[in-house]
Amino acid sequence: MQLMLRLLTCVLLLLSLMVPAPHHAANASYLEKIDYTLTNQSDGDFHGQDLEGSSFAGAVARNANFSGAKLHGAIFTQGAFAGADFSGADLSDALMDRADFVGTNLENANLSGVIASGSSFADAQISGADFSDALLDREDFSKLCRRAKGSHPISGISTKASLG
Hints:
The termini are far apart. The chain is mainly alpha-helical. Helix content is 24%, strand content 0%.
């Protein structure tokens, strides 16, 4: 009798594994994101796309267009984004440490809560960008403060004030 119960339990377990997951579980947003880790996306066009939580870690995306994209919580660690356009993008809570943002357009971008230690923002356009609660190297803070002007169009926070 115990052997029959064990066999029945095993069969039921196997059958439950074969039944497809409910539609809503299979479409969870974290499963829908494309992983761009270690890829070449130079000159790519991502403008206006929902890329929340996506990974561009180690990616090369020089001169790519991310304008107006939703990149909340995205990962840009050790990526190369020189000359890319992030104007108006939501980069809040993104992980951007040790990345190259030289000459990028960050005008009116939301960079609140980003972690960007060890990154380079030399010659980046930051007018209207919101850096509230961002973690940047002290040297980057002072360099960005010297170029800070304007206010973020949504939060209303001045770029200079957001840099502290």
